[in-house]
């Protein structure tokens, strides 16, 4: 006989709704056994007896039935929304008020698992489940505390519940939990604060706690001795908080930069990505740019790009940081750092479809306008990099990337090493120059003409251009330009008259 059949269900109902604790215990144990061995979905009607079991006055029934419900939820054997629809949320939340740590632990775990869906989060908030969870977040039992803070973390994914949490005093509770000796509690509380900090309306209240105690604590978590996922989440929280110039300035003033530099060489991908993303935010504020242009940071960024050439997240953020710092007074430091080499190696590895390639080529194109940076690029340029630049210039799907790649090539043409490397790609270069000459935007035509003039000084390119009738195409562009100029003169004269 199947344990999910009609007869077993009727027997479970009789046992569960009995006033005899022994009979209820039998039903609870039966559910526990099923939760540990069953690998098929539990039908909705089998949830009905849980209402009576969770409401039981017997402590053992509460413990066992709540544990079996946790098992079912974690294994995905029952629909989370269905649990709430069947009216089980109220008895689950009532058990949060229990004085028994096991019952508290299980009910917190149920709430945490249920709170992964938006509708359930709203139901938990409406049923006033926030207050008892905040109370249990201060529990001395580590299992209860972990599950309570985990439930709060899931609830913070709802902006409306964030408001409820802040009103109920969650901010100081979560901030103090950042100093917990339990790394899991630290992570949950830090992630919850990160979610809340994503909403700027909470920033003032968050920063007001204990004279910016939150900032100081988060910065202290940017340490190699701290659990990696906690450090990563601390970076995320600081990034979300650093939307105002004064907050960014305070972070830099509190020596956050050396800590972030150490995180850039972390063995954890999440930590490296979170650290470089925070640095990107800080680099956008002009007053931070002088402190950021330090040898240590530029060395770290260059090495980061060179070592993790295929990481598109790191590539995009690092390129944006370098671009933000690329002011005239800082340019020489950037040129002398490993950043140029790192950007070139990254350009070679990042897929054309990645947005980060857009930022890498933008940064290199801006740097290439400076002779010092061009010399640095020529030093590192080789056949694979030359081939990559020519192919990027020739592809038509991403026009901005194409333009920047061609611009980088144009700035290096006058160097003998680059000219020798380009001779292996004469056909491809002619193809993109023809494409640029027929482009609607004038800047593409101008770049093609400038590149053509420089390449024509070389006998091999000059011969190839003659054979490909490039001059004929240039003549067509000249005639079109003259016609446009005549029309403009006529329009201006007409306007003046």
Description:
The structure is a single chain. The chain is mainly α and 497 residues long. The protein has helices spanning 6-16, 21-37, 48-54, 59-75, 80-85, 89-95, 101-114, 118-126, 130-136, 142-155, 159-167, 170-177, 183-197, 203-208, 213-220, 228-241, 245-253, 256-263, 269-283, 289-292, 295-307, 312-325, 331-336, 339-349, 355-367, 371-380, 383-394, 399-412, 416-422, 426-437, 442-456, 459-467, 470-496. The chain is built from 33 helices and no strands. The model has no long low-confidence stretch (mean pLDDT 92).
Quick synopsis:
The protein has helices at 6-16, 21-37, 48-54, 59-75, 80-85, 89-95, 101-114, 118-126, 130-136, 142-155, 159-167, 170-177, 183-197, 203-208, 213-220, 228-241, 245-253, 256-263, 269-283, 289-292, 295-307, 312-325, 331-336, 339-349, 355-367, 371-380, 383-394, 399-412, 416-422, 426-437, 442-456, 459-467, 470-496.
């Amino acid at each position: 006989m199947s344990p999910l059949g009609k007869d077993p269900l009727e027997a479970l109902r009789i046992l569960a709704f009995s006033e005899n604790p022994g009979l209820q215990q039998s039903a609870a144990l039966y559910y526990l056994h099923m939760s540990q061995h069953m690998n098929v979905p539990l039908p909705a009607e089998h949830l009905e007896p849980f209402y009576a079991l969770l409401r039981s006055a017997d402590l053992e029934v509460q413990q066992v039935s709540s544990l079996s419900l946790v098992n079912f939820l974690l294994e995905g054997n029952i629909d989370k929304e269905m649990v709430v629809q069947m009216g089980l949320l109220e008895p689950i939340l009532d058990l949060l008020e229990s004085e028994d740590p096991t019952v508290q632990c299980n009910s917190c775990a149920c709430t945490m698992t249920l709170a992964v869906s938006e509708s359930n989060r709203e139901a938990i908030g409406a049923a006033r489940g926030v207050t008892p969870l905040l109370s249990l977040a201060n529990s001395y039992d580590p299992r209860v505390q972990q599950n309570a803070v985990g439930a709060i973390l899931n609830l913070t994914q709802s902006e409306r519940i964030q408001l409820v949490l802040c009103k109920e005093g969650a901010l100081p509770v979560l901030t103090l939990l950042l100093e917990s000796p339990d790394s899991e509690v630290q992570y949950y509380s830090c992630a919850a604060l990160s979610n809340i900090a994503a909403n700027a309306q909470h920033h003032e209240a968050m920063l007001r706690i204990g004279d910016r105690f939150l900032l100081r604590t988060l910065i202290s978590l940017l340490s190699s001795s701290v659990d990696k996922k906690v450090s990563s989440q601390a970076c995320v929280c600081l990034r979300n908080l650093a939307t105002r110039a004064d907050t960014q300035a305070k972070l830099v003033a509190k020596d956050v930069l050396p800590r972030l530099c150490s995180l850039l060489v972390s063995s954890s991908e999440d930590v490296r990505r979170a650290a470089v993303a925070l640095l990107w935010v800080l680099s956008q504020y002009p007053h931070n740019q002088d402190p950021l242009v330090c040898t240590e940071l530029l060395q770290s960024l260059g090495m980061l790009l060179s070592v993790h050439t295929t990481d598109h997240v790191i590539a995009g953020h690092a390129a944006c940081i370098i671009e933000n710092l690329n002011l005239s007074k800082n340019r020489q430091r950037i040129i002398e750092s490993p950043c140029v080499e790192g950007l070139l190696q990254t350009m070679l590895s990042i897929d054309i479809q990645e947005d980060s390639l857009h930022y890498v080529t933008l940064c290199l194109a801006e740097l290439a306008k400076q002779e010092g940076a061009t010399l640095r690029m020529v030093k590192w340029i080789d056949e694979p990099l030359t081939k990559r630049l020519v192919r990027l210039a020739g592809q038509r799907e991403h026009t901005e990337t194409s333009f920047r790649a061609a611009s980088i090539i144009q700035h290096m043409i006058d160097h003998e090493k680059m000219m020798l490397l380009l001779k292996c790609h004469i056909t491809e270069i002619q193809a993109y120059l023809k494409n640029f000459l027929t482009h609607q935007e004038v800047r593409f035509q101008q770049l093609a003409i400038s590149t053509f003039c420089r390449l024509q000084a070389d006998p091999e390119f000059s011969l190839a251009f003659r054979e490909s009738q490039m001059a004929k195409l240039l003549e067509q562009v000249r005639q079109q330009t003259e016609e446009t100029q005549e029309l403009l003169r006529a329009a201006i004269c007409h306007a003046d008259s």
